[in-house]
Write a sequence for this structure.
């Protein structure tokens, strides 16, 4: 039996424990005696059994073992008995566990959690194999693998994320099922679902950072060890996949590749590949590449367009993408030679390789591949387009044509939702009178190829044309051409990139405005246009060259019409087939139809001109007269009369008008509308005709082919106009009778050139739009059959290939119209300009004649006031314009009178004003002042007293300096005395006259201080003016000046630098704002205000406020020279605009003190150099100051400066509120206007933001305007905002830094939509250009700085709004579940949802981190303490610190929310279905950093709240234990 007992095996761990038991008591009670034997007895269910019966046991039973003891008095077994009994017990437990595992192994895969838990408890006591595998996770922050058993504060969250990904991968694995929260059972796919071949468990130890694998196999240790190796490989694959997913996730978010995932090119070796976590290829796609595209350039184009948004910054040619299943892949492109049969067309293949851990979705396998294929098609198309643009006569290969023809079908295969292609073929029916369409087709070809967008197609097959395709038959002078169904001569291609013109084929571009519109609407790409000719229903047709039918002129007869097989059986048809790629085929059809219509109209005009030369229009005239019948209106009578004088003229005009409406490139029309006198029409017609003919032929000679018709209401007649004595002479043709146009007549002159039978000379050929009908390009071979046939036709019928020039000029009283056909555009532009000049000159002459006539008739009547200077000016102009023929007559000088005759003779003793300076404005102003002075002071002639009867009142003149009088010469003294006498003569003067006299005396006193010759002159020269301005500015700086003197000096001497004005903002209606703007400008311009100018306040003004002041800026100051800028600034109130108007005028003064200048010692050459330097300095300073006079920019800067001050401190500004100021600035300066300012220091933008675009549900409901305003007002510091304004003008301002720029953002509410935010973004640029582009690190594209600033500010506002909405919602939830909580009868889903919101918005912290004592109580996985948490939370409300507890069940968990009223915090507990604690957290309102050593208010409050719960829990456990025991 002892041997049988010895056969029981013991687990290694248990053996160690048994060894300690043996060593525990080694003192044998009887050391000298031998060990006594041990006897065992076993019973099964109280029945004595043997070992064989135990081994043969087949059902559950109770086994008892009894051992013999020789000392019964001792209660404790001897050590020898204890060791054997322990081994026996372990062996029995192992046997029992193995039997349990064997029993559950036959349950199969339908295991429950209870069974798995029991199996995991019995597995350690059996014979099993186990191993521990250390975990490593990739951490994005460190860009390396980090051991999971070494967490730190920085990577703890990243390790938690790695564990969660690992658990998720084990959950998704097909060979594992979850056994517990951190354990998984490994399944064998080869085994059946009813029986498990072995037990294998994977346990994830998060605390130790490792995975433990345990395997029990019923076949023994060898089989268990083999399965353990298999399980290790499976675990390693899951761990590798986890790190691959972490690497892919980091790659997607950072756009930076780690060497563990994608090795660098220079570091790619076999050793590196062995240790990396590179992903396998999940998908391959081969894309054919056309021969016109180089592989490297194609790959580069794909990478920079389609794949640009997915580029990785540190790996070239690698791209990352996340599909709709949230799987991340990285891709790359490569090229290889094609293995397909069509290697000539597609010699290379572009290969797309997709790497990842999962199978890619259709967004990669289908959509991305289709985008790449589509891009390759467009690249090939662009290459062909570029090739044809450089060389429009390039011979395309057969592969190129095949690509263009198959492009649409391939594109439709790629675009599954692409609609059906439009009709590619259209047929147009030519009018019945077109019997020879050959020339028409040639004209169409020449017209459409001249547009530069559509050219003739050249390809390989064009050189292999057989000679029998086009057959030419000649019979008795008639030529017949058998036209093929499709000819290469009429195959064209459209290219979105225009080409150069062939100067030998068509030197002038035929593109019209509608053609340019079509070129923009057609889009990019290439289209092949195949034009063929049909007759009736026959595909091939014969053309009789030169066949002619009667010509009609209506809109329908010279226009194309749609094909109707039943009606147009005997007419020629033009079939147009378009092979499209990516262009708009409907636009191309419209373009071709327009070109056909233009060619048809030109063909009709040429045939009409040919009929006119042949004299065939008279017959058609009679036919038209018969068709009209008796319906004779005035217009028809006029047309009939004109047609009789010049057959075919109305028809030609009608055709030209129809062509102009198309439009046609060869048709031009110039029209001027204005009323003229009938007597000038002949002269105007002659001048216009001369201008027209001189533009065609530069040499003066008799010109033939010009017909002139004079039409009146009576009849039309052919006339001849010649020039006779500077006027036009109109004679009837053939009679010699002279016709004169009366003022009451209404004649119309019609000049026609090109319609008569006279052939046009070769001199005109250089001025034609189309010189001739060309049929061969410069690169076309002359040996082609079609060219040879056309050459023979041109020799026999040269008139068919001729193009002619036509002018029709209509001159009437109301309008002048010039219609031109086939004239060069340069001639048309010159004629248009010349016609305008002639009409303008004629209109001015007519106006002068009318003025002279009015002056002669109304010379004693004047509509102007007597003191108006306009009356004298108008009279002078009238006198100079009358009788122009008399101006050239010579008269004696004594008879010449200047100006009009005065009604009142000039008095001999009248005081004449002495003008100061040479300025015209100053002289005019002084003359007006002198006139007013004379009018108010001198009596009229009738009131004057007789000679000697009256006496003058003389006021004593100012006393002169006797010393200076002696030095003056006699003549100078007399002149000076006369000036003094005139100045001292007294008259009755008013206040303005006294001011003028005062100014005169002040100027005279300043002149007296200079050299004596200043006061001895009647006129002041430049030197005297310099001295006067110098002395005046010095006295004004010290004593001030008068308004009259300041303005007079500025007008007479100052050099005007310009003037400007600007309207203030609408919100600046206060005087203080206008004054602040002036102060701002003074600081910006560096000017100073001179002493108050007397008289400025007395200006006539009806506004509520007006201010006039003078500013000065010193440029140069020396001993004798002073250069400065004087500015007159006014700010009147405009009642119409309800705002102030700031205006200024600036003058430059360069004055000199002659008294000091003459005394200074100087050298001649040194003086010249210093003068030049001073002039250069003054010029540079003046130009710099003029550059600063930008009122728009200064007003914008001033407003933005005020806004920034309000944002910093709202109490600094006393003007308008910030919100009205912002709106006014944006109303005045939009984004485009700000961009036009030169180097603006600020940029202001405005956007509207709707919270409904990023908020929903309760967050949106709680973000009403009133609630949000109240919340922001009370929490401005929380959001770093400043409140500006009040009431409806309330807004909030914040500031931030974006790309090194200071940015202010202002948040207000929309005027009409309360829920929308009105956001203003003000960027302080300091003159830096923010319209440039920058590239952020990690981004593959560039962004404009202005857009980056706006995006950052709007993102900040949006985040602030979201945080405010969350805080508002959190305060609301905190209030309803905290202080204001009232327990409902039933806790519905609404309240449960609100509790979930409370958890989401609050800051949660594990309470075990706060009080470590709770770890033993809360983390009791084995339930050793047997705590009833439900009873504990039922009793928690009895504790004083906790006011209430909210309880509800959600799924298999129970939730308990306990509110700590004193600390204003929640304790959140979640129990699982077994009543064990699943999570225990503390919820706080605001986030804070908890630290055991911290003494912050939040930390102390949290610590006390958790301590209250700990004390309650210990107290409750103590009471529960007392009750239990």
């Amino acid at each position: 039996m002892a041997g049988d007992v010895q056969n029981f095996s013991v687990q290694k761990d248990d053996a160690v424990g048994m060894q300690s038991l043996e060593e525990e008591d080694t003192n044998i009670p009887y050391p000298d005696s031998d060990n006594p034997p041990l006897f065992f007895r076993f019973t099964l269910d109280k029945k004595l059994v043997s070992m064989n019966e135990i081994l043969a046991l087949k059902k559950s039973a109770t086994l008892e073992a009894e051992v013999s003891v020789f000392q019964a008095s001792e209660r404790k077994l001897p050590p020898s008995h204890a060791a054997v009994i322990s081994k026996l017990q372990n062996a029995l437990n192992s046997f029992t566990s193995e039997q349990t595992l064997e029993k559950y192994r036959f349950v199969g895969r339908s295991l429950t959690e209870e069974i798995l838990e029991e199996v995991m408890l019995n597995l350690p006591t059996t014979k099993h194999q186990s191993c521990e595998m250390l975990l490593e996770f990739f951490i994005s922050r460190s860009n390396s693998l980090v051991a999971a058993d070494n967490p730190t504060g920085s990577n703890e969250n990243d390790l938690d994320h790695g564990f969660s990904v690992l658990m998720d991968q084990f959950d998704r694995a097909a060979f594992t099922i979850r056994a517990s929260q951190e354990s998984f059972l490994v399944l064998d796919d080869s085994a059946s679902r009813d029986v498990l071949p072995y037990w294998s468990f994977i346990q994830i130890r998060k605390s130790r950072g490792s995975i433990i694998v345990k395997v029990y196999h019923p076949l023994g240790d060898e089989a268990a060890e083999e399965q353990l190796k298999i399980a290790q490989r499976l675990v390693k694959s899951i761990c590798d996949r986890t790190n691959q997913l972490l690497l892919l996730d980091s790659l997607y978010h950072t756009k930076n590749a780690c060497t563990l995932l994608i090795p660098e090119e220079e570091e790619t070796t076999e050793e590196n590949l062995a240790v990396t976590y590179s992903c396998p290829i999940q998908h391959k796609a081969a894309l054919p590449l056309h021969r016109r595209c180089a592989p490297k350039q194609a790959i580069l184009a794909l990478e920079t367009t389609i794949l640009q948004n997915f580029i990785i910054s540190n790996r070239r040619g690698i791209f990352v993408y996340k599909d709709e299943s949230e799987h991340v892949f990285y891709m790359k492109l490569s090229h290889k030679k094609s293995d397909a049969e069509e290697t000539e067309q597609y010699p290379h293949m572009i290969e797309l390789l997709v790497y990842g851990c999962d199978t890619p979705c259709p967004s990669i396998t289908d959509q991305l591949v289709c985008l790449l294929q589509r891009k390759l098609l467009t690249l090939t198309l662009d290459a062909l387009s570029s090739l044809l643009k450089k060389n429009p006569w390039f011979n395309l290969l057969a592969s190129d044509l095949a690509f263009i023809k198959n492009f649409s079908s391939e594109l439709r295969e790629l675009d599954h939702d692409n609609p059906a292609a439009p009709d590619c073929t259209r047929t147009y029916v030519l009018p019945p009178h077109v019997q020879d369409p050959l020339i028409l087709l040639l004209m169409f070809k020449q017209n459409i190829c001249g547009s530069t967008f559509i050219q003739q197609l050249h390809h390989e097959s064009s050189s292999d044309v057989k000679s029998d395709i086009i057959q030419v038959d000649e019979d008795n002078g008639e030529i017949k051409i058998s036209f093929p169904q499709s000819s290469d001569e009429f195959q064209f291609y459209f290219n979105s990139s225009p080409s150069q013109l062939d100067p030998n084929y068509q030197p002038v571009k035929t593109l019209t405005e509608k053609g340019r519109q079509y070129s923009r609407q057609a889009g990019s790409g290439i289209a092949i246009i195949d034009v063929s000719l049909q007759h009736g229903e026959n595909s091939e047709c014969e053309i009789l060259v030169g066949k002619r039918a009667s010509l009609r002129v209506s809109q329908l007869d010279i226009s194309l019409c749609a094909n109707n097989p039943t009606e147009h059986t005997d007419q020629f048809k033009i079939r147009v087939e378009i092979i499209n790629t990516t262009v708009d085929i409907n636009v191309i059809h419209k373009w071709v139809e327009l070109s056909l219509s233009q060619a048809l109209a030109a063909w009709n005009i040429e045939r009409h001109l040919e009929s006119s030369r042949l004299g065939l229009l008279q017959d058609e005239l009679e036919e038209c007269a018969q068709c009209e019948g008796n319906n004779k209106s005035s217009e028809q009578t006029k047309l009939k009369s004109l047609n009789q004088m010049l057959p075919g003229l109305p028809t030609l005009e009608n055709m030209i008008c129809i062509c102009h409406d198309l439009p046609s490139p060869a048709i031009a029309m110039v029209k001027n509308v204005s009323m003229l006198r009938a007597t000038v029409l002949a002269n105007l017609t002659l001048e216009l005709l001369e201008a027209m003919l001189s533009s065609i032929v530069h040499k003066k000679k008799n010109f033939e082919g010009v017909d002139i018709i004079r039409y009146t209401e009576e009849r039309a007649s052919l006339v001849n106009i010649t020039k006779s004595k500077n006027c036009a002479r109109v004679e009837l043709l053939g009679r010699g009778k002279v016709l004169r146009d009366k003022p009451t007549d209404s004649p119309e002159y019609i000049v026609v050139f090109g319609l008569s039978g006279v052939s046009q000379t070769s001199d005109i050929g250089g001025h034609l739009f189309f010189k001739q009908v060309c049929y061969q390009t410069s690169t076309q071979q002359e040996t082609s059959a079609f060219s040879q046939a056309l050459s023979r036709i041109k020799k026999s019928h040269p008139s068919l290939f001729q193009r002619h020039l036509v002018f029709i000029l209509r001159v009437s009283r109301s309008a002048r119209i010039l219609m031109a056909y086939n004239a060069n555009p340069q001639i048309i532009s010159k004629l248009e300009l010349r016609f305008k000049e002639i009409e303008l000159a004629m209109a001015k002459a007519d106006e002068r004649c009318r003025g002279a006539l009015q002056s002669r008739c109304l010379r004693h009547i004047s509509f102007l006031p007597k003191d108006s200077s306009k009356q004298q000016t108008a009279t002078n102009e009238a006198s100079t314009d009358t009788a122009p023929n008399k101006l050239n007559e010579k008269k004696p000088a004594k008879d010449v009178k200047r100006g009009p005759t005065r009604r009142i003779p000039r008095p001999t003793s009248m005081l004449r004003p002495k003008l100061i300076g040479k300025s015209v404005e100053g002289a005019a102003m002084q003359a007006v002042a002198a006139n007013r002075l004379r009018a108010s002071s001198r009596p009229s002639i009738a009131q004057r007293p007789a000679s000697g009867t009256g006496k003058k009142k003389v006021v004593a003149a100012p006393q002169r300096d006797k010393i200076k009088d002696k030095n003056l010469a006699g003549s100078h003294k007399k002149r000076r005395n006369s000036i003094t006498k005139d100045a001292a003569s007294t008259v009755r003067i008013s206040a303005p006259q006294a001011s003028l006299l005062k100014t005169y005396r002040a100027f005279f006193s300043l002149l007296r201080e200079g050299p004596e010759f200043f006061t001895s002159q009647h006129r002041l020269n430049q030197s005297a003016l310099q001295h006067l301005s110098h002395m005046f500015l010095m006295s004004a700086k010290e004593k001030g000046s008068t308004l009259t003197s300041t303005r007079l000096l500025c007008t007479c001497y100052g050099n005007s630098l310009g003037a400007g004005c600007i309207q203030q903002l609408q919100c600046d209606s206060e005087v203080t704002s206008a004054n602040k703007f002036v102060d701002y400008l003074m600081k910006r311009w560096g000017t100073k205000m001179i002493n108050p100018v007397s008289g400025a306040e007395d200006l006539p003004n009806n506004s509520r406020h007006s201010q006039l002041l003078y500013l000065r800026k010193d440029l140069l100051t020396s001993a004798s020279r002073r250069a400065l800028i004087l500015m007159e600034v006014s700010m009147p109130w405009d009642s119409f605009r309800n705002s102030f108007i700031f205006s200024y005028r600036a003058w430059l003064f360069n004055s000199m003190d002659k008294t000091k200048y003459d005394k200074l010692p100087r050298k001649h050459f040194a003086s010249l150099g210093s003068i030049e330097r001073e002039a250069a300095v003054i010029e540079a300073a003046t130009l710099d100051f003029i550059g600063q006079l930008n009122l728009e920019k200064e007003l914008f800067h001033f407003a933005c400066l005020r806004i920034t001050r309000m944002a910093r401190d709202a109490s600094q500004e006393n003007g308008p509120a910030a919100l009205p100021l912002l709106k006014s600035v944006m109303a005045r300066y939009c984004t485009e206007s700000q961009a036009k300012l030169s180097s603006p220091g600020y940029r202001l933008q405005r956007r509207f933001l709707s919270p409904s675009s990023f908020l929903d549900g309760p967050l949106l409901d709680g973000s009403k305007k009133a609630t949000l305003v109240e919340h922001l007002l009370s929490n401005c510091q929380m959001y770093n905002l400043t409140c500006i304004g009040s009431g409806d003008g309330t807004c909030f301002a914040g500031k931030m830094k974006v790309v090194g720029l200071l940015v202010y953002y202002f948040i207000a509410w929309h005027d009409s939509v309360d829920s929308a935010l009105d956001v203003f973004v003000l960027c302080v640029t300091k003159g830096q250009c923010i319209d440039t582009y920058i590239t952020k690190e990690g981004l593959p594209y560039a962004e404009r700085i202005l857009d980056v600033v706006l995006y950052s500010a709007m993102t900040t506002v949006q985040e602030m709004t979201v945080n405010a909405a969350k805080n508002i919602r959190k305060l609301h939830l905190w209030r309803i579940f905290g202080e204001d909580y009232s327990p409902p009868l039933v806790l519905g889903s609404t309240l449960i949802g609100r509790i979930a919101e409370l958890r989401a918005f609050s800051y949660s912290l594990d309470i075990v981190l706060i009080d470590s004592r709770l770890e033993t109580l809360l983390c009791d996985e084995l339930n050793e303490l047997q705590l009833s948490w439900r009873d504990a939370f039922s009793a928690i409300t009895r504790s004083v610190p906790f006011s209430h507890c909210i309880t509800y069940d959600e799924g298999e968990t129970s939730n308990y929310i306990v509110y700590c009223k004193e600390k204003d915090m929640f304790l959140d507990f979640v129990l699982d279905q077994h009543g064990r604690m699943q999570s225990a957290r503390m919820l706080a309102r605001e986030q804070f950093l908890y630290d055991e050593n911290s003494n912050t208010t939040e930390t102390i409050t949290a610590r006390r709240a958790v301590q209250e719960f700990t004390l309650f829990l210990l107290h409750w456990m103590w009471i529960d234990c007392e009750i239990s025991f």
In short: The chain is about 40% helix and 20% strand. The mean pLDDT is 77. Residues 1265 and 1314 are 6 Å apart (CA to CA). The two ends are 46 Å apart (CA to CA).
